[in-house]
Specification:
Number of strands: 26
Strand content: 25-35%
Largest sheet: 10 strands, antiparallel
Distance between the termini: 57 Å
Oligomer: single chain
Structural class: alpha+beta
Helix content: 10-25%
Strand order of the largest sheet: 19-18-20-21-22-17-23-24-26-25
Radius of gyration: 24 Å
Shape: globular
């Protein structure tokens, strides 16, 4: 049974409904709080948490329950309430299921996963207790060692939930890596993949044949020295520390699905009138014909798209950086992450965007120059790279090999073009010369890369262009 149970309800979980859910362990069960009251916990007699309940989220974006849970939610807006059971305690899982079932029964809706929905009766927990939790532990963290924090996620998509975001934050503050363990068949949200960073943080997938492997690299892993680490091949040496690759990871499935991936950076002058998110919206409209559907500071994305509200949140958090996730509608799967940082140069927006297409759909490559021009002329573009990848239409990351993208275009902003000596930016060793974007007196440049999207030759062109622009 999953450790996470979610109630999707039409009505807001008011204090009486939450109290009825919390009484799933009986009237004598201890109740505690964390995170300045944002998390309520049912505890054992020693005050250690059995079930942690996150503050309910009002979801006003269609399709998020389907994308992340494969579940049908009530019509928007609806309420999303997560309960997380302490790992390894069967009664805790039953408590979480009964809590969610009671909320769904009282408020109208359903509990996810369906098999976690339990009886409305009180769960017997007499004599049940849990191990003492380390001082640095969070509700999201299942195992804590001197080297890593381990999170177990048994859900269709490992998403950047508020739980997981807290886990990342706690691990970073403690100087630890974060390792996420999930069963076979689970996929990863791009938002989590981009946040994992480097070693020793990993996405670990359980596997019948090889035990455990890294879902992003395929390296076979074992628990050793307080963390999951690669297994050395029998013929490995100090100079060539080979690691076996899981057989499941190598089962490539070419379904004809593709993703158009864009990474771009904008640097805005610091100004009280600045509105963030406009560049992303411009690109989204050029490539899909519509604006984004929603955004949030975690997944699920809960708020309808609004650059003004996004700007207000970033302003409130300044000078600390702010991270957002932005999602598309059901007809055009798309997901972007946005990191906003205040620097000496101004306010920087770093955006990664992926749009998914099936074998019958053609990515709108003809619209790329117009999208680039909108960024260059209205949103202070610094640079952008466009790639085409053989990858899933739903933009989720599977625990199997997906080849690297092929560069289709690179864009250099007007300030960067102006800063280069002579005409270096305009004259390149590529067969196809750059296209001028914006006014000729202050142009940005769009570099089409002539590599064949069916192979990796585009990377050779891209590397050659980068060496030229750097003066190498």
């Amino acid at each position: 049974m999953t450790k996470d149970v979610i109630a999707l309800t039409s009505k807001m979980p008011d204090p009486w409904a939450v109290l009825a859910g919390l009484l799933s362990g009986g009237p004598d069960k201890l109740v505690g709080t964390r995170g300045e009251g944002a998390v309520i916990q049912l505890c054992d007699p020693e005050g250690r948490p059995l079930v942690s309940v996150e503050a309910p989220l009002l979801v006003s974006v269609e399709g998020e329950a389907e994308r992340l849970l494969g579940a049908t939610a009530p019509p928007v807006p609806y309420w999303w309430t997560e309960a997380r059971a302490t790992t390894g305690v069967a009664e805790a899982e039953q408590l979480a299921g009964t809590f969610a079932t009671r909320l769904a029964s009282l408020l109208g809706g359903s509990a996810w996963p369906p098999d976690a929905a339990g009886s409305l009766a009180v769960v017997k927990t007499d004599g049940v207790s849990v191990a003492p939790e380390p001082a640095a532990a969070q509700p999201a963290i299942d195992v804590l060692t001197e080297r890593v924090a381990v999170v177990i996620q048994d859900r269709p998509v490992v998403a950047m939930t508020a739980w997981l975001s807290d886990g990342f934050r706690a691990a970073a503050e403690a100087g630890l890596g974060l390792q996420i363990v999930s069963p076979a068949g689970t996929t990863l949200s791009p938002a989590v993949r981009d946040a994992l960073g480097g070693w020793p943080s990993r996405w670990i997938v359980q596997d019948e044949r090889d035990g455990y492997y890294d879902g992003l690299t395929g390296a076979v892993l074992r628990w050793q020295d307080g963390m999951f680490a690669p297994v050395a091949s029998p013929d490995a040496t100090e100079d060539d520390p080979r690691t076996p690759v899981a057989a499941t990871f190598q089962e490539v499935r070419d379904t004809g699905e593709r993703q158009l991936a864009l990474t771009f950076r904008m640097v805005h002058p610091a100004d009280d009138r600045l509105v963030l998110g406009g560049g992303l919206e411009s690109v989204w409209r050029e490539l899909t014909g519509a604006p984004p559907a929603g955004w949030g500071t975690s997944e699920p994305a809960t708020l309808p798209w609004s650059p003004r509200r996004l700007t207000d949140v970033a302003h409130e958090r300044a000078p600390e950086p702010t991270w957002f996730v932005v999602v598309g509608n059901r007809d055009r799967p798309a997901l972007a992450t946005v990191r906003i940082t205040r620097t000496e140069a101004g306010v920087e927006e770093h955006v990664t965007l992926a749009l998914g297409y099936d074998s019958s759909e053609e990515p709108p490559l003809d619209a790329l120059p117009a999208a680039a021009e909108a960024l260059a002329t209205r949103h202070h573009l610094q640079s952008m790279l466009v790639q085409l990848r053989k990858a899933r239409r739903d933009v989720a990351v599977p625990p199997r090999f997906e080849g690297p993208g092929v560069p289709l275009a690179f864009v250099l902003g007007a300030e960067e073009v102006r800063a280069m000596p002579g005409d270096r930016a305009r004259r390149t060793p590529l067969a196809e010369q750059p296209v001028t974007l914006g006014p000729r007196t202050r142009p940005a440049l769009y570099y089409p890369l002539p590599g064949d999207p069916s192979d990796l030759s585009g990377w050779q062109d891209f590397e050659q262009l980068m060496r030229h622009l750097k003066g190498a």
